[in-house]
Structures are given as structure tokens and as C-alpha cells.
């Protein structure tokens, strides 16, 4: 990355921070490759905390200039008006993704809001802090469409889609994920929003070994599939996604819908469209949901892809 491009980063940061609502938001998305020389830099606003992430090792001059600019921000009227409390630089390229607190004190477990819903985050100890911000439009769509539906949420992680669905009036959501700790965080997210936990199931299963159990709780009016691109020993996107798609006809209710997601820059929307034609030809591609505008990418097919089928 290029030190001489950092003034552009700070210009964008000031503009986006000034315009940001009182919710969690991505403020700078260098990984969309719209800012030359800053492709490995992002910045998120965690309602008072600024999390700057570096995805590739940089030289000392870049780090020094970045830190100087961030510390200057902490003394600005804008920072005071936004009630900023801390600034953190996370070195995502390094083992363990260590975090460095530049200003204030890190609140590692903040409760934030997105589209009026509350989520518990976990900052500084993992690469991902518990809510994928580029999926906001997908969660909003689910909230709008979920009323009186039986929803299956595959690869549920911390249950963001589940929270949105119950808030939108779903009768039941079944969350499936191998990580029981992530599902526990999902349970807490529901409690934060005052939801009836009796309407929500949390299944700590390997999806491919548990189709029978999953099927028993169907049929489903809406199925959300949001897998990792790769999970060692359990999921490889290009190999395993089709194994899920071929199960959809026996899981879906008549007129049911599927939200299928993929976030690998190496895999295009056509992979899902062709895979669905091959494995579940009863389902037709309807549309691709928009990503939040702050996640604009010069190549839309390299960014998050959220596809709707019916």
C-alpha cells in the first residue's frame, strides 16, 4: 500500500463518519479496489469505536502516517460530536490478527445496533467480530419477508439472519452451525432483542451428517444458506455447495424461497445459478439482492453475492 494515498483515506473517513447513522457501519472499504494504493485497508465504526484493519504487511512509514492521522482524528470536533471512545488498529495479516489500541480503551464486547436490532460483538480476539456488515441488506430483506414463515438458517454463525427473521414475525427459525459457541452468541443476540427463544432452535450439527434431523423440523418457507468459503475439514465451497442445493426440494414447502450466498471473489453468481439448475431445477433464479453502498466493488462479482431463488 502507498503512504502517499493516506490523505485520501482520511478524507473519506471524515466524510463517512460525519454521515454515519448511530449504528454500526463500514466507513472505508479499500478492498473494493476503488481507492488505488489502499486496497488492503478497511475501517469500521462500532458506535464510538473506530476499528481500522490492515490486511497485508506494510512498511513503517505507512504505519506511522496512519497512526498520526488517527490520533489527529481523536482530537477533532467531529470525533467529539460522534462521542468517539477508542481507536484500534487490527493487523489482519499477522497470526492471531493482533489488535493495537491507539486511543482510549477497547470495549471488546460492545452491543451495537443495525437496522434497529441489537447484536453483541466480540472485538480484538478473532478476525471476525460477530456480524458481517456487508450482509445488512440480506438481513433487512429477511426481516421484511419472514412473517409467519418457518425459516431454516444454515451456517448460522451468530444467528444474524435468525434475529432478523424473528423480528420480522417468523413462526420459527432453525439455526444450524458446527460451532456451538457461535450459536450461544446467537441465543444472546435473540435475548438482547427481547425475542421468544421458544421460537428458535439452535442445532450444533455438521450439516452434512444431520439432514434427517433438519428435515424433521420442516418443511421450510425460507432457507438461508450463507457458508464460509472454506472451513478446514468440513466445507469447501466449490465442492460442497452443490451437496446442499440438491437437498433443497425435500426441505422446502410449496412456494418456498431460498437465499443463497457466496462471498468468495473467485466464485461468481453464475456458479450458484448453474448449480441450482443442475441440483434443484424446480427453483428459479429471481434476483440478486443489493449490497450496502459502502461495500461498492469495482467488480461486483468479486464482492458478496446474495441470490434469491423460488
Automatic annotation (TrEMBL):
The keyword Transcription does not apply. Transmembrane segments: none annotated. One of its GO terms (molecular function) is methyltransferase activity. InterPro entries: SAM-dep_methyl-trfase, SAM-dependent_MTases_sf. Signal peptide: none annotated. Keywords: Methyltransferase, rRNA processing, S-adenosyl-L-methionine, Transferase. Gene3D superfamilies: Vaccinia Virus protein VP39. GO terms for biological process: methylation; rRNA processing. CDD domains: AdoMet_MTases. Residues 25-310 form the S-adenosylmethionine-dependent methyltransferase domain. This is Methyltransferase. The lineage of its organism: Bacteria, Pseudomonadati, Pseudomonadota, Gammaproteobacteria, Vibrionales.
Amino acid at each position: 500500500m502507498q503512504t502517499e494515498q493516506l490523505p485520501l483515506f482520511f478524507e473519506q473517513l471524515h466524510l463517512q463518519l460525519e454521515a454515519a447513522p448511530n449504528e454500526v457501519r463500514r466507513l472505508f472499504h479499500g478492498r473494493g479496489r476503488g481507492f488505488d494504493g489502499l486496497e488492503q485497508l478497511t475501517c469500521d465504526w462500532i458506535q464510538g469505536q473506530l476499528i481500522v484493519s490492515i490486511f497485508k504487511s506494510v512498511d513503517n512509514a505507512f504505519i506511522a502516517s496512519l497512526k498520526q492521522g488517527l490520533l489527529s482524528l481523536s482530537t477533532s470536533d467531529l470525533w467529539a460530536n460522534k462521542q468517539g471512545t477508542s481507536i484500534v488498529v487490527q493487523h489482519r495479516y499477522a497470526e492471531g490478527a493482533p489488535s493495537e489500541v491507539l486511543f482510549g480503551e477497547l470495549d471488546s464486547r460492545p452491543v451495537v445496533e443495525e437496522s434497529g436490532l441489537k447484536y453483541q460483538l466480540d472485538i480484538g480476539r478473532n478476525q471476525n467480530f460477530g456480524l458481517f456488515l456487508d450482509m445488512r441488506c440480506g438481513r433487512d430483506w429477511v426481516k421484511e419477508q419472514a412473517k409467519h414463515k418457518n425459516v431454516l438458517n444454515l451456517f448460522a454463525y451468530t444467528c444474524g439472519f435468525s434475529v432478523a427473521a424473528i423480528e420480522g414475525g417468523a413462526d420459527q427459525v432453525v439455526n444450524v452451525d458446527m460451532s456451538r459457541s457461535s450459536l450461544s452468541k446467537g441465543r444472546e443476540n435473540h435475548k438482547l432483542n427481547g425475542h421468544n427463544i421458544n421460537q428458535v432452535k439452535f442445532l450444533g450439527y455438521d450439516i452434512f451428517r444431520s439432514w434427517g434431523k433438519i428435515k424433521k423440523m420442516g418443511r421450510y418457507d425460507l432457507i438461508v444458506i450463507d457458508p464460509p468459503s472454506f472451513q478446514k475439514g468440513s466445507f469447501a465451497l466449490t465442492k460442497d455447495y452443490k451437496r446442499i442445493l440438491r437437498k433443497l426440494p425435500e426441505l422446502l414447502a410449496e412456494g418456498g424461497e431460498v437465499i443463497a450466498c457466496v462471498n468468495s471473489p473467485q466464485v461468481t453468481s453464475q456458479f450458484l445459478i448453474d448449480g441450482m439448475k443442475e441440483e434443484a431445477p424446480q427453483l428459479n433464479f429471481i434476483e440478486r439482492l443489493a449490497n450496502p453502498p459502502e461495500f461498492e466493488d469495482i467488480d461486483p462479482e468479486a464482492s458478496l453475492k446474495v441470490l434469491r431463488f423460488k
